[in-house]
Every structure is written in structure tokens, then in C-alpha cells.
């Protein structure tokens, strides 16, 4: 993807936030920070924001509602996707009413609509998604060169993090030289499809990888592919497509190996490790090996982080839950959710009833923040390579992933830098408690939520419909029922021609192809948290 286009999308999103959205719900200046996510629609040369959200919070299990009237996960990426669903519902209503201006075609003989060929969607996030995509090495200080520790069996990249190096990156034909059970990679031959200023690979370093490093994609299905297959076969198969090369190879070399360890300080409401450098140092330079750390927690039923010093703190490729303050959440990390959406689509189960095929995004564009191309490729796509036997029209989506230098002014880093430059004595900068949800729809375009409910609702009315946000499950189900009622029963898609569809759960489970794809995803990611069904039995 063209870097200028990615910058244009990112700039459009930040400008929409600063110039179009009102002040309501935004962080307090110099005191609070938040995350921004948005979806941009492109129709030929026309770009417009169709969904946007901010947010950093989740509610714990004890606060969840069986009525579907509370938003469990208020991270910006998740809320932006929910706002996107509102936009899709309105566009589907238009298409099924014969409106040619809709982004969807009119229903076909199976009563299904399709996205018009000219329409593409691009996802922007101001920060690397929490969870696995946030696990990567910190860069070493300028001039510090790290060499292989003879006592280690793992690779060292960037600031000494132990990581299996992806051998099939663009421009790397034939660069994998076998030497017994290990191979040397000249990092000068590696080219990643992102802004070079954000890379953690440095041009004059040698990266040595040991074939004996255990690699695992899921608890039940270990990856048994060789770490260093012939690179030429990948290049000849995929040509010059860096996304596919990274995608295929990351499942080989950077899945859930205990040796693939790295992390960052998440800009979510997460508890992080102490800020001091770990005691582990490189034997040749004396420089401490360190990593960015995430607050997202490993699944209780699955492999756990090592929690050792430096590069041995985390394992990568694992499913993770967003943390709660004394009240555990049931919300998967944004890395995990976005990986799932790359399989089942961003439209969800309910909307899939009306669509001929799942909706996928063309790109993921990241604003200026701590970033690692290999980590985000691994988290969003590389972990998916063992997902197989998907139903018709379902495939593993491979979006372009691009880093930009476009700074979101209300990000944690931007607020801290601004305070430091102005010598502001505001104390600790904290995550904003409110979340903004905006959708490009005719009614109710913007709302602000706190703790999963509309901001400003009194405790007296907290359980009334007026307290609901438009993107909570209950309101989304209302939109679904409105869409059904807008057409005669003879116009229903085949999956909805049943008499036993009464609850939210019933209608989701009736989306057979979607549920089949989700089941195939769960075969590989078998520790994925499953909320009790009684949280979906509302009607």
C-alpha cells in the first residue's frame, strides 16, 4: 500500500476527531488520554469516515448484563467496529428499499446483498491493538549493537529480545543460509512494508535463529512446519506481495513459542510492570534487554507468561483477556478480536444473514506510536494459518498493515510530551473514563458512554431504555429486527425462514455459515472465552 495513502487516511481520521467531533467526551487537557479508532470508506477517490470511537475501558464480569443493555468492551477498536455496524444496518435498509445510493447491491435471488465492487474499507487506530500485537522488543539506544549470546538458543533482534526471525520477508530471496541446525540472516536484506522509522530491525545486524525453538499455534494443534523452509518457494508462490509473505512465514517462526518473547507498555487501562530495566543484559555490550509489556492477561486454561526479567517476561501468539481492576473481564484483547474478524468478517453474525459474503477491511493503518511490523502481522494474521476447512465465501483476510507518523493529539504519548515540553505540573496522566461513539448515520450520530451506559444518565434511570447506548447488543438486536420487518417474509434470506427465532442467541446461532466459520476458528483458538448463553437470551 502507498505510504502517502495511509498518511491521508490517518490524517483524515485525526482531523475528523479534532474538527468534526464536539468537545463532549474528550479527555481533559493535560490530565487524561484516550485511544482513537475509525473506519474510512473509499469509493474510487472519495474518502470519508463512516465510524469512529475513543475508549480505553472494559467492565468486569460482575457488571455484565443479561439484558444486553451494557457495553462490555469499550476499547476504541471495538466501539469503532460497533459504530460501523450501525452504518451497515442503515445501508442495508437502503439497499433492500431499492435505494441505488447504498453501498450494497439490491438483494439477489437468494435475498442477499453484496458490497459494491467500488467500495473499500480501511481501519485506523492511533495505537497498536492491545494484546499480542503489542508484544515486541524495545529498540536499543543509538549505536548499541547486540550480538548472539552463546548461552542462548534463541534469536535476538532489536534490543536483544528473543524472537524467531521471519525468514521470508520481501526482498529476502535466498538470504536464509543453513549452518547445521541454525541459520544466519543478514538483516540488511530485509524490507518490511511499513514506515522505516518505526522498524526494530537495524541494517547492519546479524540475526541467528535456532531451528530447535519449539513453535506452537494453539494448545491443541502444535505447528510442525520447519522453521526455515526454502524461501524461494514462498517468493515464487506469492510473488512480491509482502503481506502474504509475512502472513505465511509468521505462522512458522513467530507464533506462540515460549522463546518468542516481547512486549510494550499498552496505552490501555492496564497494570504494567515496573519501569526499571530488567536485570538481564547482553554479554557483549552490557545493555539491558527489554521489551514493551502488555497488561492483557493469558487465558487461565492456556499457556502462561513466563514473567521473568526482560525478554523472558511474555510469550507471544497467545490469546489474552483484557484486565479488570479486581473484577476479571470476559473481553478478549483487541489483537485477538481483530484476528477473529479476519476470519469471520467485521459484520458479525446477525448481519451475515443478509450478506452474500463476509465484509473484510483492506488495510489496518496505525498512527504514530510504539510499533513493530512483525508483531502486528503475527497477531492479526500469522496466528491464523492453521484455521482450515472454512465454509464457502469465508477465507483468511490479509489486510495491508501500515505504520504512519500521524500523531493522535490525545494519545498518552502526545499528552505526556506536551506536558513535558510545557513543564506542566499536572501530576499523573490517566486514561479518560468516557468513550465517544460516532457513526455516519442519519439519526443519533454521536453519543458518549461511561461504564457501558450513556453518559449523564441518573441512577434512577440506569436500567431504562434511555440509558442504553445505540451500539449495545440489545439496540443492535432492535436494528436487526427492524431490518427483518422492513421486508415481507417471502423476502427473508433462507437462514431466517424459521419459526424458532425468538432471542438474540437464536438469531445469532441461525447464521449457519458464520457459525461454521467461527467453529473452525475455535478449533485452533480453543481457549477463547465463551460467555454463558444466558447473557444472550434477551429478546
Q: Can you offer a commentary on this structure?
A:
Pfam families: A_deamin. It catalyses: adenosine(37) in tRNA(Ala) + H2O + H(+) = inosine(37) in tRNA(Ala) + NH4(+). With 539 residues, this protein is α+β, with helices and mostly antiparallel strands. It has a domain at 3-131 and 329-536. 23% of the residues lie in helices and 14% in strands. It has eleven helices and 19 strands. It has helices spanning 3-20, 76-96, 231-238, 242-253, 334-344, 348-352, 373-380, 412-421, 473-485, 504-509, 512-524, and strands spanning 32-33, 36-43, 46-54, 56-58, 73-75, 119-125, 156-157, 161-162, 177-179, 182-186, 206-210, 297-298, 320-321, 363-366, 400-403, 430-431, 434-439, 446-450, 453-454. It has an eight-stranded mixed beta sheet, sandwiched between helices. The protein has a three-stranded antiparallel beta sheet with strand order 9-10-11, with no helix packed on it. The longest helix is centred in the first third of the chain and has 21 residues, at 76-96. The model is unreliable at 142-281 (pLDDT under 50).
